[in-house]
Amino acid sequence: MDFGIFTFGELSRNLSTGKALSPQQRLKEIIELAKLADQAGLGFLGLGEHHRRDFALSAPEIVLAAIARETTKLRLSTAVTVLSTQDPVRLFEQFATLDLISDGRAEIIAGRGAFIESYPLFGHELEDYDALFEEKLRLLLELRDNAAVTWQGSLTQSIPGMDIAPRPVQDKLPVWVGVGGTPASFARAGRLGLPLFVALLSGPARFRRLVELYHQTAADAGHDPAALQVGAGGHFYAAATSQRARDTFYPYCRAYFEQNMPRPVDHFPRSTFENWTEPGGGLLVGSPQEVTEKLLEIHATLGNSRYMAQIGLGGLPFAETARSIELLATEIMPAVNREIGTVPPAPDGGSARGRERNLEEPAAGIPAARGPEVPA
Are 144 and 117 in contact (CB under 8 A)? Predict the structure, then answer.
């Protein structure tokens, strides 16, 4: 399984002080966390797109370009691009350029967006929510597949046989479809033969039938379901023990749900949080062993070949986020891949479940995490 991280760059206020990081500090921390993930051997970084004052990432393509120059292996993507309110031509140009800068590491995860502020901001109507995405996704694929494009648009522009440049390093820039829980979205991704990213806001069981629908629709459209990738991801935090993980993460998870959701909740109680962290729940919060077991459950249910952990949620401090990323890379990822048989055991016969070392110290070969320095 391929492992990676993603973030929306939210600017949650501290529940005690009422203060949040500045956008400048948050962006600098995201770049540092990307460098850490690259050094730790993770395979993917995704950045969300939001257009509200409580998020720092309205232009993820620019931040990804900065990260491209600081990393060597991470695949770089949005998570997700709100394609319904983007110009597909401009989007393709930006990602083709990112692909050139990064030596072929760019990807796009396209979605309709659970946040709707970009629709009036860029002059689109909410009643066209699905139709915009359908037409723009088809145009994006046309741009990806052809160096010169003729296109007759209805909700998009018409293109009279024009060059689409520059072209990326990759022959076909990867385009994934990000989905929540709408059956039509799963079916569309299958019909087009595109890889699928499932946002697990709840446990994997409710998505089993939807992934089956995706595969069946793909087969009906003439695509090989076995050749299609399924990715899954959701809220993530790992610590040395399950109790420490829960006690540390709950205030920040609560801040996120009460401040930064599309429809913030008035109160996110500890009892709900605890229920969601139990086996079968959607929150991957716990010790490396506990998180490993949950990831194996997700894999057994959905057959996913990629997992993307949403990190740094709700204002979680940089050091805690960095340590959680290290545990994902050095403890959880090897344990999951040994269990599903994709990589051999460690040469010393060690096991992520049985290894004993001080989890408060940096992993071997990974520098101690430090936040970026920003002038006061």
Answer: no
Rounded to whole angstroms, how far apart are CA atoms 112 and 84? 6
Compare 342 and 37 and report the one with higher pLDDT: 37
Written as one letter, the residue type at 48 is: G
Give 336-356 pLDDT, tens digit per residue.
999 998 644 443 333 333 333
Amino acid at 207: F
Answer yes or no: are the C-beta atoms of 86 and 157 closer than 8 Å.
Answer: no
Whether 19 contacts 281, CB under 8 Å: no
User: Tokens at residue 277, please?
Assistant: 């962290």
Phi, then psi, of 248 in degrees rounded to 5:
-75, -45
Could you give the angle at the alpha carbon of 207 between the alpha carbons of 300 and 228, nearest 5°?
70
pLDDT value of position 372:
55
What is the rounded distance in angstroms from the CA atom of residue 313 to the CA atom of residue 8?
Answer: 9
In angstroms, the Cα distances linking 26 to 9, 22, 57, 266, 308 are: 7, 6, 9, 25, 20
Grouping H, G, I as helix, E, B as strand and the rest as coil, residue 48 is coil
How buried is 364 (Cβ within 10 angstroms: 0-12 exposed, 13-18 middle, 19+ buried)?
exposed
Residue pair 57/47 in contact (Cβ under 8 Å)? The answer is: yes
**DSSP state, residue 295:** H
Residue 249 CA to residue 238 CA, distance in Å, equals 9
Surface-to-core class of residue 167, CB atoms within 10 Å of its CB (0-12 exposed, 13-18 middle, 19+ buried): middle
Instruction: Tokens for 346, please give them.
Output: 């460690």
Check if the beta carbon of residue 245 is closer than 8 Å to that of residue 237.
yes
Say what angle helices 60-68 and 23-40 make with each other, to 10 degrees.
40
The DSSP code for 346 is P
H-type helices in 42-182, by residue range? Answer: 60-68, 88-101, 118-121, 129-145
Distance CA 18, CA 4 (A): 31
Distance CA 153, CA 135 (A): 8
